[in-house]
Amino acid sequence: MVGVTPSASCSRLVRVLGTTGVNSLCASLSKISWQKGTSWRLLFSRVMLNLPKRYKTKVRLFQVCVCIFQGVKANSLYPNLLSKPFCRLPIPTVTLNSRNNIKVGNPFMRHVALTSTILATALLLAACSSKSDVPPLQGQRIDVTLQPTLLQANPGAAKEPFEIPAPAALENWGQRGANSAHVPGHAQLAQSVKRAWTYKLGGKYGRDTALLNPPVVHSGRLFAINTEGEVTALDAKTGKKLWEVELPFAKKSEALVTGGLAVLGNLLFVTTGDGQVFALTASNGKQAWKTDLAVPLRAAPTVEGERVFITSHDNRMFALNALDGALLWTHSGMDGTLGYLASPAPAAEGGVVAVPYSSGEIYILRASDGRYIWHDSLTSSFSGQDPESTVTAIAAPPVIADGLLYVVGLNGGLSAYGVANGQRFWRVDVLTSQMPIVAGMQMFALTEKGEMVAINRRDGSIRWVADLAKGLKDSEGPRYWSGPMLAGGRLITVSSDGFAVSVNPETGEKITTTELDEPTTLPPIVADGGLFFLTDSGHIISFR
Question: Residue 42 CB: number of other CB atoms within 10 A?
């Protein structure tokens, strides 16, 4: 066994922040009223709340915090902190076994120790980039590449009756997740579909541009936005262009990262990368109103009743009047230490709105006025050994179904809560940035390892696990999967290298594989008997 402690990075971190920065940070932390026996989770929350604002944007500050405290304990620096109960807590250690699996002594600090080690390695590499007379350390070099940990099916779950609703007509896919609760159900789709039409959106596509949300379909029209702020309406059955408008961007450079779309009646709501919210007349594209929120918006809006709910990239929530764009209320979460490019759309149902933040927090608020009901954090340690599990973000839209809230975090797994009181019923170690699909008492989700899993909603037990890449040709780079979508008796997903795969929802067996010939990282949608993909190069592909 090889032991590693992240405290070796303290001196380098001090050099990064500077003496003044360390003094200021520790002075702020010394003001915290520490309590004996306080949990690591609460300590972390208190530390983040007491950090000077300018530090919340540097490296990953909870790592800096922990490493500085380790330096305090080891070097007797900053005596005013040594008396705090925090400094009597054990420092976690990281151990690598012969299979290169990582184990950490303190459960909550598992990801802190791992990411601190990674950060220390990065700083060490930076230091080694300049010429040095220091001889290399003696000893054996050990490969610490992290290996994937595959989920395991529960034999008992596989024996239980499999129940999903029969396919039903889904006329509209009017917002992210089909509706405000993000429960599209089991949509009708022909058993055999073929490519009906392809439409090329304008815009620039490359390393500096991104499409973050799929199109929407409402009343026979498909709506999409490109990287230059052009909104296009197509006939969903034929692909014929009905109208196109170019939105006026306050900062044209921000247009290259798009927001998303939602439809309510004859109003099409559009969020943009430069912080603007537009309401367009769905039939002709004419502007009904515009509101400038002055903060980058990457999430698609969620519409319920006469309210539009939007999350921003800096962890704020805005509720607007759908009729005139007036700001109704706002809410702020904790600043995220590290997040994904995309922001998930909130879920709204039954007078409440579930707000996901990149900090790993999920808030349940009253939809009418934003009044706090309850919240939880999904930043608890993840049992899988994956560097991505150090990211605290909730990157997938939450789901509200039958009085339950399903939230999946990149660090906190997939959890089921009671919407009314926040009681957590179960949790599964599923690491994903994709929205799970609810159908009857089953739930289907993708993992960042390229697996699809079927989960029993009653207790979180796993019915089956399918390796989506099995049988596919090797990808030139990492392969990521988006979806799934349940339609026509099969689960449909798409890969970043252009493979659309359908899977049997009862067994997990692969049914068909179709090549789209283009990288595709957005999930497919189904509406009015059509299956739609939006590729990374701006092609909308329809199957019927």
Answer: 11
pLDDT higher at 389 or 350 = 350
Q: How far apart, in whole angstroms, are the C-alpha atoms of residue 516 and residue 102?
A: 38
- Laid out side by side, the sheet with 241-246 consists of 216-218, 221-225, 230-235, 241-246
Token pair of 233, please?
A: 């309406």
Question: Is 110 part of a structural domain of the chain?
Answer: yes
Where is 14: in which H helix or E strand? helix 10-29
Q: What integer pLDDT is reported at residue 202 of this predicted model?
A: 85
Compute CA 450 distance to the chain's CA centroid, rounded to the nearest angstrom. 16
Give pTM, 2 decimals.
0.73
Nearest to 399 by CA among 419, 370, 424, 377: 419
Residue 297 belongs to domain with CATH number: 2.130.10.10
Residue 325 backbone zone (phi > 0: left; psi -120 to 50: alpha; other: beta)? left
Distance CA 60, CA 41 (A): 16
Q: What tokens appear for 526 in the block? A: 């189904």
35: containing domain: 2-128
Residue among 529, 536, 501, 535 nearest 515 (CA): 501
- Domain C-terminal end among 128, 147, 162: 128
Domain presence at residue 44: yes
Please provide residue 71's backbone torsions phi and psi, each rounded to the nearest 5 degrees.
Answer: -65, -35
Q: Which residue has the higher pLDDT, 390 or 279?
A: 279
Indicate the residue among 69, 100, 128 that finishes a domain: 128
